[in-house]
Amino acid sequence: MAEQVTTQQRIVLVTGPSGAGRSTAIHVLEDLGFEAIDNLPMGLLTRLLDGADPSGPMALGIDARNRDFSTIGFIELAAKLGRMAQVDLTVLYLDCNDDVLLRRYSETRRRHPFAQDASPETGIQQEKELLLPIREIADSLIDTSALNVHQLREEVELWFAPQGGRHLAVSVESFSYKRGLPRGLDMVFDCRFLANPYWRPELRAEDGRNADVAAYVQSDGNYDAFFDRVVDLLIVLLPAFRAEGKAHLSVAFGCTGGQHRSVAVAEAVAKTLAEAGQQVSIRHREMERRSLNVRPD
Questions:
Q1: Segment 67-89, tens digit of pLDDT
Q2: H helices of 86-146, where?
Q3: Is the pTM value of this prediction over 0.90?
């Protein structure tokens, strides 16, 4: 008996802080052939997906301002869809730094939905803290801080254009083993064997994006061989993943605190892949939590 082929329906859940470009991304996905539904309450969204038949791709915008929105509810929904064999799920998170979000609200003179009677800064901080767990589970992250509308369109098209025009997008991430592995990783590399800048008092408060920290990590005698082999492996595998039809690949580097070694290596690998012509985004999980003043676990 011939094996039955299961047709997967591509579903993209699109979210992110207000003003980061979520609606624009939804419109781009609609132009790419996705059935787009924006700002649908989560209760109705669950019922919609329960009765959906695998057909064309769907882009579903999730707005944190909806009265029935909850972080746990979103994560549970993503987990449910991720377990369904007939669904090819991507969680797309549109992000933006606080200064740019504040400028956008100042230019439009709109009140922030999370701070109707307070400053926009307060609303931006509250919404980002609410969405942080979702940001951490996102499969694709686009930082719109330096993008205009046209550049954002190009970025979304690079990630989600139909097969034949699709690029393989690579997400490079750093993390702390103390807090566990991030969700949805394809490849993980342990950097805890490298020299630790934490034990240098003048470097302890810095992170791996600092030139002196990066230089200290790279001075380890094992660094060059490790770095070269990781990059060589990725350069070999990326075309194979692209030919297989994979839309994105998540590569993570971990160390004890997620501040020095993993950040320095992730930055160097992302830079090298970008220079080789790859579509690369970079995330530093613990640095993001620190920037939002989230208390460590």
A1: 788 899 899 988 888 888 788 88
A2: 98-108, 120-137
A3: no
DSSP labels for 174-241?
Answer: EEEGGG-PPTT-SEEEE-TTS--GGGSTTTTTS-TTSHHHHHHHHTSTTHHHHHHHHHHHHHHHHHHH
Residue 23 CB coordination number (10 Å): 17
Q: How confident is the model at residue 210 (pLDDT cuts 50, 70, 90)?
A: very high
What CATH number is given for 9-160 in this structure? 3.40.50.300
Q: What is the pLDDT of residues 38-75, one digit of tens each?
A: 887 887 776 776 655 556 788 999 888 887 888 998 99
Give the contacts of 119 (CB within 8 A, at least 6 positions apart).
none
Q: Over 80: is that where the pLDDT of 260 sits?
A: yes
8 A C-beta contact, residue 147 and residue 155:
yes
Q: What single letter denotes the amino acid at residue 55?
A: S
Alpha carbon distance 25, 15 (integer Å): 10
State the Cα–Cα distance between residues 151 and 25, nearest whole angstrom.
Answer: 11
- 156 and 142 in contact (C-beta within 8 Å)? yes
Q: CB pairs under 8 A, 24+ apart, for 203-207?
A: 203/260, 206/260, 207/259, 207/260, 207/263, 207/284, 207/287
CA 68 from centre of chain: 24
* H-helix or E-strand spanning residue 242: helix 223-244
CB-count exposure of residue 40 (10 Å: 0-12, 13-18, 19+): middle
Between CA 140 and CA 267, with CA 13 as vertex, the angle to 5 degrees is: 10
pLDDT of residue 1: 44
Q: How far apart are CA 155 and CA 94, in angstroms?
A: 11
CA gap 190, 199 in Å, rounded? 19
Domain spans, the chain: 9-160, 169-291
